[in-house]
Write a structure and sequence with these properties.
The complex is a heterodimer.
Chain A: H1 2-19, H2 21-46, H3 54-92, H4 96-100, H5 106-142, H6 153-178, H7 184-191, H8 200-206, H9 212-239, H10 243-247
Chain B: E1 2-13, E2 16-22, E3 25-27, E4 31-35, H1 42-49, E5 57-62, E6 65-66, H2 71-77, E7 78-81, H3 95-105, H4 113-123, H5 139-151, E8 157-161, H6 169-186, E9 189-194, H7 197-203, E10 206-211, E11 214-220, H8 221-229, E12 233-238, H9 243-251, E13 255-261, E14 264-269, H10 272-285, E15 290-295, H11 300-310
Helix pairs in contact in B: 3-4
The chains are: A mainly alpha, B alpha/beta.
Bound molecules: adenosine-5'-diphosphate and magnesium ion.
Adenosine-5'-diphosphate (ADP) binds at residues 13, 16, 18, 36, 38-44 of chain B.
Chain lengths: 250, 313
């Protein structure tokens, strides 16, 4: 019952988000950009070294973690846009009051609004990974390079575990601030700050920290930070969820 | 049985007391009007009643449920047409989808949803418009769609916040007629906020006047109108020239106001039970021949202006 209503909210929010032109274009744009960036980074850098040299392996250990991190970064960015729309957007549009007047529990409402961002982002992560993986594999094979399986294990962890955790953190932050800001862009700017944690695994390899141990280390640090952020933001979002604040003027 | 009953209901925002210890009772089946100027606290009252806001003090029983303790049950049995209702629809979704979304959120069984939506859209004369995006409907049609949404789940009480405020006179009339027929057809108790006196007088059988968060007056519309009308203003028709009658009235210390209106003397008498007969005697003594001595009907507007001005400080 409760999951059902949350799902109704999530699906309707998504359908409406896709009807707003700027959301649709940025979603599609970002969705396409993730795999493109990952593919270009990986293929581009791999082509700068001869396939047979030992440098190829080194280059691979540099580009694989960067590619995965960029892919998850790109897929996570729309979360802020969708959830800012789903919460503050409803307020801006004056549609929040009738919604809050329905017999939804706080839990159903929060879950519904969270799912409307989490579902598309997870879909973007999965589809972006699948596309990049196929393109990179085929490219390496057809060009006589050693076949490259993207993403590697730490990359998969970053994309499928850390990415969704960051999405949860962003959504929770958005819920937390939704009663305190009145404009979508304000919410978007504040709520999306959490994506910054994904810069760690992008920056780390480029300053030379490319051995598998430090890649894992930085992925795990990113995960820990994202997890703490998500847990704390979620706790406060639920704890201080306040219909009064959402209805009141800011 | 009272469908809405408030007990010392109070809402304070910072240092503004928006709703100040109000006690109201709205019996089942009535069309109740909460009348007051802008900023009087009408919208805040409605938001408290549908649990969008939590009271600072006091409480209310709506459809038999306490707004503090059973907000879900209150929301399940109460409908809301928010202020500026025509702007509270999802503009890019069709009229039908707007209702379908809320039907699901109100927990109407899936199999009953299409029938219920069709019934209401036909009732409101919107069935032909069902596939139009809500944002492309006229303001009047949007308002009717928002009214459909408010009663979709067959609430026992519908709270309507200024249902005709932004409508042209014809659209407003249509909405008023729909409200009355909804009350008849579906037995819904209506709680209507308005600053439109004529509207309240026309459709509400009970009324309360609110200003600065306080209820100044409450009761049956007719009763309030006649109660305040009694013992105040009288019209005296005389045979021939009324100027002698006017000078008599002006000389009487218990007459607060005297003027001529179309050859009729209009007097405002203090304590009419004691003084009306004295006035008549004085007129007769001066040779004025009285044709008619009648109480002037007060409109709700007079009542409203009298109490709202009186309640200013
Ligand atoms: N969320 C809010 N925060 C602060 N003040 C408010 C809020 N809502 C209403 N008020 C104030 O409470 C008073 C009553 O407002 P309202 O209930 O909207 O009046 P009405 O609907 O009768 O015009 C006004 O002074 C208004 O400024
Ligand atoms: Mg109002």
């Amino acid at each position: 019952m409760s999951r059902n209503k949350s799902l109704v909210i999530a699906i309707t929010d998504l359908r409406m988000a896709m009807k707003a032109r700027y959301v649709r274009y940025s979603l599609i744009g970002v969705a396409a950009l993730g795999p493109v960036v990952a593919i270009v980074t990986i293929i581009g850098l791999l082509m700068t070294v001869p396939a047979t040299s030992s440098e190829f392996g080194q280059m691979l250990s540099l580009v694989m973690p960067m590619g995965s991190a960029m892919l998850s970064l790109m897929a996570v960015i729309p979360a802020g846009l969708i959830s800012a729309n789903a919460l503050v957007g409803e307020r801006e549009q004056n549609t929040l009051e009738p919604l809050l007047a329905t017999p939804l529990t706080d839990r159903e409402l929060i879950l519904g609004k969270a799912l409307s961002s989490i579902i598309p982002c997870v879909l973007l992560l999965i589809s972006g990974t699948a596309v990049s993986s196929v393109v990179i594999y085929l490219f390496t094979v057809f060009n006589g390079l050693p076949p490259v399986l993207f993403p590697d294990l730490p990359g998969l962890f970053l994309i499928l575990v850390v990415g969704p955790t960051v999405v949860v953190a962003i959504v929770a932050m958005m819920i937390l601030i939704s009663g305190r800001v009145s404009r979508v862009y304000e919410a978007y700017q504040t709520g999306t700050a959490a994506v910054a944690v994904l810069l760690v695994p992008i920056v780390a390899p480029s300053i030379g920290l490319t051995d598998p141990r430090s890649v894992w280390l930085f992925d795990l640090i990113t995960f820990a930070v994202a997890l703490v952020l998500a847990a704390v933001a979620w706790y406060f979002a639920v704890r201080f969820f306040n219909r009064d604040a959402m209805v009141s003027r800011v | 049985m009272d469908r809405v009953k408030t007990e010392g209901l109070t809402k304070i925002f910072g240092d503004i007391i928006a709703v100040n210890k109000i006690d109201l009772a709205v019996p089942e089946g009535s069309v109740f009007g909460l009348l007051g100027p802008n900023g009087a606290g009408k919208s805040t009252t409605v938001r408290l009643l549908c649990t969008l806001l939590r009271p600072t003090e006091g409480t209310a029983i709506v459809s038999g449920h306490d707004i503090r303790d059973e907000p879900l049950a209150v929301r399940q049995t109460t409908g809301l047409l928010p202020e500026e209702g025509s702007h509270t629809l999802y503009p890019r979704m069709s009229a039908y989808r707007n209702l379908e979304y809320f039907a699901k959120l109100y927990g109407i069984p899936d199999k009953d949803i299409p029938g219920r939506i069709e019934e209401l859209l036909r009732f409101m004369g919107l069935w032909e418009r069902r596939d139009d995006p809500a944002g492309e409907l006229s303001t009047g049609n949007r308002q009717r769609l928002a009214l459909c949404r408010a009663i979709l789940h067959s609430p026992t009480v519908a709270l309507l916040d200024e249902p005709t405020a932004s409508l042209d006179p014809i659209a407003a009339k249509r909405v008023r007629e729909l409200i009355l027929s909804l009350a008849r057809e579906y037995g819904i108790t209506f709680f209507i906020n308005s600053h439109n006196l004529a509207e309240v007088q026309r459709i509400c059988d009970r009324v309360a006047i609110i200003d600065h968060g306080k209820i100044l007056l409450a009761g049956e519309t007719e009763e309030i109108r006649s109660q305040l009308g009694t013992g105040r203003v009288f019209r005296v028709r005389v045979v021939g020239d009324p100027s002698a009658a006017l000078s008599v009235a002006e000389s009487a210390e218990f007459v607060e106001e005297a003027r001529l209106d179309d050859n009729t003397l209009v007097v405002k008498v203090r304590d009419p039970e004691a003084n009306n007969s004295r006035l008549m005697m004085m007129l007769i003594e001066r040779g004025v021949r009285i044709l008619e001595f009648a109480q002037e009907e007060m409109s709700l507007e007079d009542v409203y202006l009298a109490v709202v001005d009186g309640g200013e400080d």
